Amino acid sequence: MKKLLIIYLIFPVFIFAITSEEILEKVDYNMTPSSIEYDGEMIIHKKNKKFIKKMKIQAVGKDLAFMEFVSPPRDKGTKYLRNGENLWIFLPKADRTVKISGHMLRQNMMGSDISYEDQTDRSHLTDLYTSEILEETDKSFILELTAREGEDTAYYRRVIEVDRDNYVLITSKMYAVSGKLLKEFYVDDAMWIGDRYYITKFRMEDKIKEDSYTEIILNNIVIDPDIPESVFTLKNLERRN
Predict the structure, then answer these.
(1) Among 35, 135, 145, 207, which one is most buried in terms of CB atoms within 10 A?
(2) Can you tell me the distance from the alpha carbon of 83 to that of 45, in angstroms, rounded to the nearest whole number?
(3) CB-CB contact of 183 with 204 (8 Å)
(4) Domain CATH code at residue 178
(5) Would 81 be classed as within a structural domain?
C-alpha cells in the first residue's frame, strides 16, 4: 500500500492525464448537438467596407442543414439545403435551383470568408482527424490534427487551441497538404446552453485574401429541437414564402 501511495504522489499527472482524442471528443460534444436552430448574422469585412447579412439556420445530425437568408433585400429568399455531400441553392430572383458538390463546396459563400462546407458541415473532428497534443498551458491545450487516411477534408491539417476548463475552441489554423495556411478561425464568445458550451460568435479569416474577414453571430439558439424531416426537402427549398 505504501508503494502505491508513493507512485501516486510521484506520478499523479500521468495517472490522470487526458488524451488528445478525449479532448477532441469533448470539443465535438460542445460543437455538434443532435439538432440545432438559430438566427445568424454574417458580417463581412472587406478593407474599409462592411456588409451585413441575416439568416435562419436549422440542422440535424451531421448530414442535414437548411439555411435561409432574410436580409438584405437582394439576398432575401436565397436558401441552402445540405444533405450529405450535396448542396442545393435556391436563387429566388432567377427562380432556379443549383446543385453543387465535391470541391465546389469549398467555395466561399455570399462573398464571405466562410465556405459552403465551413458553414453547413457538422462532421465530428474525431471522425476526420487523428490528433496529438503539442503543448499544454494552465489555460489551454494546443492540438495538431491531421486528416485520417482516406478522408477528403477541406483542410489537411489543423492546429487548434482548446480551453482546458470548458473544452471550447479558442482558435483554429487550417492548412493545405502543401503546408500553406488557408484560414484562421477565432472564437469571440461562447455560452452555456443546456449541458454544453456552444460558440455564439466567431471570426474567419481567409489568408489567401487581403484585408478580409467574416464574423458570425448566433442568436435565439435552440439546442436539440424537434425539426420535422419536411424542412430538409427540395420542396421546402423551392417554396415561395
Answers:
(1) 145
(2) 29
(3) yes
(4) 2.50.20.10
(5) yes
3-state helix, strand, coil in the chain (%, to 5): 20, 50, 30
* 191-220 tens-digit pLDDT: 999 899 999 999 999 999 888 999 999 999
SS3 88: strand
The model's pTM is: 0.88
Q: Cell 493545405, residue?
A: 176
The rounded distance, in Å, linking the Cα atoms of 37 and 71 is 18
Q: Which pLDDT tens digit goes with each residue over 117-157?
A: 998 888 999 999 999 999 999 999 999 999 999 998 999 99
List the grid coordinates of 103.
470541391
User: Collapsing DSSP states into helix, strand and coil, what is residue 119?
Assistant: helix
SS3 for 84? coil
In a domain, 80, yes or no: yes
* Alpha-carbon span 88 to 79, nearest angstrom: 8
Given a contact cutoff of 8 angstroms between Cβ atoms, the answer to whether 58 and 223 are in contact is no
